[in-house]
Amino acid sequence: MSKIKKIDLTGKSIGEVESHKNFVVEKPHSQAMFEAVIAENAGRRQGTHSTLTKGEVRGGGKKPYAQKHTGNARQGSIRNPHYVGGGVVFGPKPTRNYKVGVNKKVSKLAFASAVSVKLKNEAIFILEDSASSKKPSTKAISTMLKTLKLLNKKILFVFNSEKAEALIKSAQNINRTVVKKPNQVSTQDIMHANFVIVQESALDTLAKVVA
């Protein structure tokens, strides 16, 4: 079982923490991670886009010209699909559901694999629970990232909301950072971040995702 570096609010190393057994994957499963990300992206699609059919486009109640003796093909409406401004054939409608189903075991494997990759690359840090501030302080979080040489990197912060309200507000002000509660973190969040900083009390809750 690998160990994770533990840091304080200044960014200094104060020891190590054993990674949770749920995050131990001998070989990260790339296909599972791919399927999980595809499903997450598909689930975010609202599917509210809509086009107008021939019967919904306004106008075209009158024949554009006489049925016969014009030398042209007969036409019933200028709102036919082949006319500019006409209706759309087989266009998208908001009734379509874009959700993609993923097996629970695959979803858990994907999450564990994503965390395992970060552990292997030493891209996860554990922030001690005592690291807190009474008032939001963006400077404190910025100083920590400077010490870790992570400033301007894509950072995922995972905070336990009960113990880190001030820290959550502080981290949200920093560019290229994402702040989430442990039960909100997805496989894509882990993969998209260059580094992950997890509050110590949030580690067990995060591990329950793959339990």
Name a few traits of the molecule.
6 strands; 6-stranded mixed β-sheet; 211 residues; alpha/beta; 6 helices
Task: Summarize the structure in words.
- This protein is an alpha/beta fold.
- 28% of the residues lie in helices and 13% in strands.
- The protein has helices at residues 30-44, 104-120, 138-147, 165-171, 187-192, 203-207; strands at residues 3-7, 13-18, 124-127, 155-158, 177-180, 195-199.
- The chain has a 6-stranded mixed beta sheet.
- Strand 4 (155-158), helix 4 (165-171) and strand 5 form a beta-alpha-beta unit.
- Helix 3 packs across helix 4.
- It starts with a strand and ends with a helix.
- Topology, number of strands: 6
Percent range for helical residues? 25-40%
Q: Write down the oligomeric state.
A: single chain
- C-alpha-based Rg, rounded: 27 Å
What share of the residues does DSSP label as strand, in percent? 5-15%
* N- and C-termini, Cα separation: 16 Å
- Give the class from helix and strand content and strand pairing: alpha/beta
Count of helices?
6
What does the average pLDDT come to?
A: 89
Main sheet summary: 6 strands, mixed
Give the uncertain stretches in residue-range form.
none
Helix and strand succession?
A: EEHHEHEHEHEH
Q: Rough shape?
A: elongated
- Widest sheet, order of strands: 2-1-3-6-4-5
